[in-house]
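thread from #wetlab-drylab

HS: before we spend reagent money on co-crystallization trials with heme C, can we at least see a predicted complex? here's what I'd submit
DV: go for it
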Amino acid sequence: MSIIKVVLIFLLTSFETVHAGNSDANEAIIVEMQSVASTFVKSLGKTLKATIKSEGLAAAIHVCETVAPTLANQLSRETGWRVSRVSLKFRNPLIGMPDAWEKEQLINFSNAPLSNNTQPDVMEVTSIEDNSEGHSIRYMRALPTKALCLTCHGKSTDIPNEVSSALEQFYPNDKATGYSLGQIRGAISIQTNRD
Ligand code: HEC
């Protein structure tokens, strides 16, 4: 099965729970979430590349450490949603750990057959939950491992010494290495507050 189909199935299954009355509003929120995720990916990639170029790799570790969470917080404030980055093999246990739903989606993303050239630009999933606790819309966009990511998340042969010693110092319990090109490194996760 192609990945595009997998993604479509995710979307179709989750849309089944939409209540007819507010489906337009829900759809508008999902479109907005897609755009927030794109903004996140683009700005972080740009800052990472610029910092690696101007200050070197070890300095760029702090981009992922401080710029990414700051950007997530800023987007959360702007939208009123919870915007975060999660992973099955997280580096930062305080903010990178997925909850049960996120974990399930990360497993699905990771199980989709991926190889360099077949991965779609955007692999995503949405869910609309209506239960006794309230109404909540969730969205996740997979973050595949690109060449740029390998220097800090790849196998030991991909990671330069200056980077591995900085990682050992700042993240003694790091789980986020050993990735290869195209593998799902994690995801951006966005959630509305329940109402
Ligand atoms: C210069 C080193 C560096 C590069 C390059 C880098 N990362 Fe990271 N990444 C980190 C660090 C450090 C953290 C932990 C940040 C924190 O403390 O929250 C991290 C955290 C993450 C997280 C959050 C979940 C977790 O593990 O805690 C994701 C997802 C992630 N990186 C994806 C990527 C992707 C995708 C790329 C390539 C586009 C990438 N990173 C490139 C250093 C890097």
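DV: Residues 1-21 have pLDDT under 50 and may be disordered.
HS: ok that's useful, forwarding to the group
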